[in-house]
Design brief:
about 325 residues, mainly alpha, 14 helices, about 0% strand, disordered N terminus
């Protein structure tokens, strides 16, 4: 999943929060489900759609990349992702000349502390996702990212003072039911799903309030992780336990690619977010867990029982109600 901003739908009727105001004034969908900001033309909207689809599709097919490097221990893969991401982001920052923003983020105490927390959250999210793929638990990761919007609604209630409307409460209850069904089926709490959903929802919540853009924030987060990641990779190389550099060209190409596939979709996502409404981005976020789900069942042949179907059905029903409440229901009341 994205390692930048998490766009979720928080109680549109609450005028205290800017995202609520944004949804309050959305009345129609001009093109399919696309609602563009009024200052953008339909051409710009289509460009935004192209960027958004590209980002979410690449995030969806991330799973294939981590399958290709599944023979490498997850912690080492994470270290490579961090190290090569910083290299990629350095090149992008050099091209965009946004060093001033980075310097500001690093010198403002409150901003830096918040980014330290988001660094812990996103690195945990990355690591657990890699572990999920490595252990053949892509269905659990899909489940986690499906329930992420509903966890975000719950966080809005707990930390932003947003009231839960009736359909939102039903959606949360269905999400809870889905977790219970999977827990009974698996014999243990689906911790991969819950950790992925909770860490990314908390990450998105904090990134909404921290005064740092997507590129700046990710660079600072990666910079904070870089010393430990690089030190670990150097240790592996010196002791001969690392997968890089390898005797085969495959790993020598795939592992450095982790930086590119982390940074590029974030930039695409940022370009899409500037051209599309929050509602459009909110709908598109379901592309990624849907691809994870299809890959798990079709490509990776992970077991998909009736219990899995029941658990996912609870989540999908909850998401349908949640989406109706956030868009269709709102327009009906306006």
């Amino acid at each position: 999943m994205p390692a930048g901003l998490s766009f979720t739908l928080f109680a549109p009727h609450r005028k205290k929060y800017p995202f609520g105001l944004l949804f309050h004034y959305i009345h129609q969908i001009p093109e399919a489900l696309l609602i563009r900001p009024t200052h953008y033309s339909s051409g710009e909207t289509r460009i935004g759609v192209a960027y958004g689809l590209a980002a979410y599709l690449l995030w969806g097919f991330f799973t294939l990349y981590f399958k290709w490097v599944a023979h490498v221990p997850p912690l080492e893969v994470l270290a490579h992702r961090i190290a090569w991401s910083l290299v990629t982001l350095l090149a992008i920052l050099a091209a965009t000349r946004e060093w001033r923003k980075v310097r500001t983020a690093l010198t403002q105490g409150k901003t830096l502390i918040t980014l330290v927390v988001t660094t812990i959250l996103i690195s945990t999210n990355w690591f657990v996702f890699i572990v999920a793929v490595d252990r053949g638990q892509v269905l659990q990761s899909s489940f986690g990212y499906f329930i992420n919007p509903l966890v975000s609604v719950l966080l809005g209630f707990l930390f932003l003072g947003e009231r839960l409307r009736r359909l939102q409460m039903v959606s949360l209850a269905l999400a809870g039911a889905g977790v219970v069904v999977l827990t009974l089926h698996l014999g243990h709490v689906p911790w991969i799903s819950l950790v992925l959903a909770t860490t990314f929802a908390l990450y998105g919540l904090l990134r909404k309030i921290v005064p740092a853009g997507a590129l700046t924030g990710l660079f600072v987060e990666t910079l904070l992780l870089f010393p430990a990641a690089t030190g670990f990779l150097i240790y592996l190389a010196v002791t001969g336990k690392g997968a890089f550099p390898a005797a085969t060209a495959g790993d020598n190409i795939l592992l450095p690619m982790a930086g590119v596939i982390t940074a590029i979709p974030l930039l695409w996502f940022s370009a899409a977010a500037r051209r599309l409404s929050l509602a459009s981005i909110g709908f598109m976020q379901y592309i990624t867990p849907t691809i994870h789900f299809l890959l798990a069942v079709v490509a990776f042949a992970e077991p998909f029982s009736r219990a899995h179907l029941a658990g996912f059905a609870c989540i999908w029903t909850g998401l349908l109600l949640y989406s109706y409440d956030a868009t269709g229901g709102m327009r009906g009341r306006s």
